[in-house]
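Request: Give me one sample?
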Amino acid sequence: MSHNPAGWPPHLKGAVTAALLVSCWLFASPLLNAVFILFTLHVFSLFLRDTCGLQRARLILLGIGGPIGVLLAFWKQGLQFTPYLAVIAINLSMAYVFGHNLLRGRPSVLLQFVTSAHLGPSPSAEFIAYLRQQCGVWLGIGLFSAGLALLALVAPPLRSLASIVLVTLLVAQALWFVISHEIARIRFSRTETWQRSLSLILRRDTWEKLDF
């Protein structure tokens, strides 16, 4: 049986983590809110450090954001950190992935994904422009969803409406993921499929090929 560096079997660590997150979701408690905050900041900081190359992100998020978050969990119990803090982190991550190179005028992450991971036909200028547009769409969705989740976190009267919009956006993103591939296939005669893209996204070695 393989163990992680801490000595826990991987499946046991996953089960404990899942049980902890479910408890944070089901039971209203300042302590569980604090645990959820620290867990979310931990995962988010690892993504920023290991995937995006932001080496000081972990120190800032856990060293500064962690104590502030724990303080707010006990001091401002009307704030709903679970699950909205995670929604904010996920969408800010998405906005960074799609927007960082786009805003700096560098090759978009989608262009890198097509050429380095899919290894499909050489992209035309029109298709490159289309990929930049798609990065802009995902950047906008990420920022809007993160802002909406922040609103839900701090404003109880708007929480129900914000949650409905967030779920609707999640479904829309899944649909657009498929539709955008079909547009590329029809307009630009591309061979990439959404099934293949999803498979590549889930592989760690794919992310190592991308420069954010």
